[in-house]
Design goal:
single chain; 276 residues; mainly alpha; two-stranded antiparallel sheet; two-stranded antiparallel ribbon; 4 strands; 5% strand
Length: 276
């Protein structure tokens, strides 16, 4: 009976010592968050690392994404203006040649056959203008045929928009669909067409400048917002390595003290057993 009581007492004391050790181990470690900060490069990986900072970081991340997506839209829009301006430059060249031929056709010293030859070339040039209007496009969107007068370009996450107006350069819009030197004609019609094309190119140039300005703003805003986000979230490696080393040393000390405590408890158990 005495032996059974002694065994029960020893078992209870050992369980209490083990529970004490487990409690000591579970309460000390912050190394997990330090390792997470060092491995991810961010010291704010969850709300427990800083709820206020995490909220700000998420907002700034959303802003950066909005600026970057808007910049992609602006880049596409700049491509549209480049394509349209290049095509209109070709249309202007066609019109200049038509005007030159119309002046030649006004020479009373040429024959009717000469005029027919001039008109034949004019018709070819008009066909070139018509083809430019019908085939100039971006991503399947016609730019010069009058089918779409404008396009909205969203430039940031706040919904800021820029209207990109297209130029109609069809023969009808330019007023030269029926232009012919075989009868009475007005060279001024070609001048008016040239003026429309010139005004269209000026409009496109102004739009391109506006797009470039918006793109530059997005780049600066994205950079500064990213920098602000980094100041809040990026891990200071020297600081966190120091914290990790300090925590590791503290844990080692605690483990040593725990081991010493367990040894003392084992000695106490041994003394109790000898006294029973």
């Amino acid at each position: 009976m005495m032996k059974l009581q002694r065994q029960e007492t020893v078992t209870i004391l050992r369980e209490e010592a083990n529970m004490s050790g487990i409690s000591g181990v579970s309460g000390y470690s912050n190394t997990g968050s330090y390792y997470s900060a060092l491995s991810s490069g961010s010291r704010i990986n969850s709300a427990k690392d800083g709820a206020a900072e995490l909220s700000i970081i998420n907002k700034e991340d959303s802003q950066v994404r909005g600026y970057n997506a808007g910049s992609e839209n602006l880049e596409a829009a700049k491509s549209v203006t480049n394509i349209a301006d290049g095509a209109l430059s070709g249309v202007a060249d066609y019109l200049q040649r038509i005007k030159e031929l119309a002046v030649k056709a006004g020479n009373g010293l040429i024959t009717n056959d000469d005029k027919k030859a001039i008109q034949s070339e004019i018709d070819q040039l008009k066909e070139g203008i018509s083809n430019s209007a019908s085939t100039t496009e971006y991503n399947g969107i016609k730019l010069l045929d009058g089918s779409r007068s404008s396009m909205q370009i969203i430039s940031d996450g706040n919904g800021t928009s820029h209207e990109l107006e297209n130029v109609n350069s069809t023969l009808d819009a330019l007023g030269i669909k029926d232009f012919s030197v075989m009868g009475n004609y007005d060279i001024g019609d070609i001048d008016k067409a040239l003026e429309k094309v010139s005004n269209g190119r000026t409009q496109i140039g102004a739009q391109a400048n506006g797009l470039e300005s918006a793109f530059n703003y997005n780049s600066i805003a994205s950079y500064n917002t990213t920098a602000s986000k980094s100041r809040l979230s990026d891990t200071e490696y020297g600081e966190y390595v120091s914290k990790l080393q300090k925590e590791t040393n503290l844990n080692t000390y605690k483990l040593m003290m725990q081991k010493k405590q367990q040894q003392n408890e084992a000695s106490n158990i041994a003394r109790i057993m000898t006294s029973i």
